[in-house]
Amino acid sequence: MKIRGEQVRLLRKKLGLSQTELAQGICTQATVSLIEKNNQLPSMPILFQICERLGVDVADVLETTNNGLTDIFERIDNAVLADDAQLTANLLNTIRIKQLRTGHDKQRYYYFLGMLQLMQQSDPTEALFNFNLALKQFAANETDIYQVMATVAAGIAYLKNGDTSTAEQLAQKATKMTAGQLVGATARQLIALNLKLTQLNRQLDQLAVSLQHGKKAVALCRHFETLFGIDQAFYQLAVTQLTMGDVTAGQQTLRIAESLGIVCQHPKLLSVIRQQQLKLS
Question: Global pTM?
Answer without folding.
Answer: 0.75
